[in-house]
Amino acid sequence: MSIPFVDLKTQYQALKPSIDSRIQKVLDHGGFINGPEVAEVEAKLAEFTGTKYALTCASGTDALVIPMMALGIGAGDEVITTAFSFIATAETIVLAGAKPVYADIDPLTFNIDTKKIEKLITPKTKAIAPVSLYGQVADMDEINAIAKKHNLFVLEDSAQSFGALYKGKKSCNVSLVSGTSFFPAKPLGCYGDGGAIFTNDEKLNKTMKEIREHGSESRYYHTRLGLNGRLDTIQCAILLAKLERYPWEIEQRDRIAHRYNQAFSEIKTPGFAIPFVKPENKSVWAQYTLRVKDRANFQKKLTDAGVPTSVHYPRIMPDQPWYKEHTTAGADLNSWAESRRAAEEVISIPMFPDMTTEIQDKIIFAVREAMK
Predict the structure, then answer these.
(1) pLDDT tens digit string along 248-279?
(2) CA 358 → CA 5, 274, 362, distances in Å?
(3) Mean pLDDT of 352-360
(4) What whole-number distance in Å separates Cα of residue 54 and Cα of residue 345?
(5) Helix (H) / strand (E) containing 218
(6) What is the pLDDT of residues 175-224, one digit of tens each?
(7) CATH class of the domain defined by 246-370
(8) Strands 346-349 and 288-291
(9) Nearest-5° angle of CA 248, CA 132, CA 339?
(10) What letter does residue 228 receive in the DSSP assignment?
(11) Region 8-243: CATH code
């Protein structure tokens, strides 16, 4: 039995009639850029999250760069973010012209430790950009309160948490603005790069829409610096088809994670830990990520058993060569101990909504055997 890490083929077969017909419709009408499916999926994404506005864009990276540009974040500014995330989190801050300032993480949730934020605020701080990692929303009430106190913007990096809940509210609707990713392996993914931005601020949405279209207020009339950040119509058509069963997929992910939790909670090996989700949260389980002290040995045992794994992420952002050289000047390089420990211990196992009980049983057996 071959076990995929993420099974997009089975998902496609389940949605094939809808996906194929929607793609064919785009091929027939020929509106490959800004076709009617773009506005349609934006309306459905906004409805899903409960936000007033959703703006599709070409990637999750654009979904973070565009709002920073719209908020005027640039040269001389600082943005506080987590030390532990995919590099796009820091990369987009640098691309906007600002400097990322890294805070350590909560060792239980892997999200930014809100107790570490205020001491990093300086007169140059313009925004806080928390990441809702692995599918669980960060502690947004605390973050929003800190931001309000210091007159800062909050931009949620929701690339891994689209569909997650925080105190009854959807991720993407818990801050001023949020950017998510539709990379194929995400909980909701298209068949290429893609992303979306969410806000309830009408003026901000208008500005971001202009930036997405080369800074144009109207065709060939460019009032601001922009970029080509549009999402292709065909990708929007695919997202429309996938949204049809996305609520079911979220429930399936939660069911699979719950069964993992039950099976692995019996493992008492020191240094082993299952994911922790706060009681007020509902994760969308972008990854099911364990902590294992001897990760290399554990990973080899799972590979030998035919179970694929992945490490998200083996090196923290401020320790990446370019970022260490260009973004950590003046920082206390010893202040990210929990982030570094996570980078040495985290390991993700397969998680996808179409996982059969048979496949999950094999994964559970392999993990238990590896921890003996």
Answers:
(1) 999 999 999 999 999 999 999 999 999 999 99
(2) 15, 21, 6
(3) 98
(4) 36
(5) strand 216-218
(6) 999 999 999 999 999 999 999 999 999 999 999 999 999 999 999 999 99
(7) alpha beta
(8) antiparallel
(9) 135
(10) B
(11) 3.40.640.10
Report the predicted TM-score, pTM, of the whole model to 2 decimal places.
0.97
CA distance 187 to 160: 7
SS3 letters across 37-75 = HHHHHHHHHHHHHCCCEEEEECCCCHHHHHHHHHCCCCC
Q: Where are the domains of the chain?
A: 8-243, 246-370
Hey, what are 211's tokens?
Answer: 């930036």
Look at residue 237 in the predicted model and tell me its pLDDT: 98
Strand-pairing partners, residue 156, are 178
**Count of CB atoms situated within 10 Å of the CB of 72:** 11
Give me the DSSP letters along 165-176: EETTEETTSSSS
- The distance from CA 329 to its chain's CA centroid, rounded to whole angstroms, is 27
Residue 189 contacts residue 6 (beta carbons within 8 Å): no
The distance from CA 179 to its chain's CA centroid, rounded to whole angstroms, is: 8
Task: Report the distance separating Cα 49 and Cα 317, nearest Å.
Answer: 29
User: Tokens representing 231?
Assistant: 């999402």
3-state secondary structure 97-143: CCEEEEECECCCCCCECHHHCHHHCCCCEEEEECECHHHCCCCHHHH
pLDDT class of 1 with cuts at 50, 70, 90: confident
Mean pLDDT over 50-79 rounds to 98
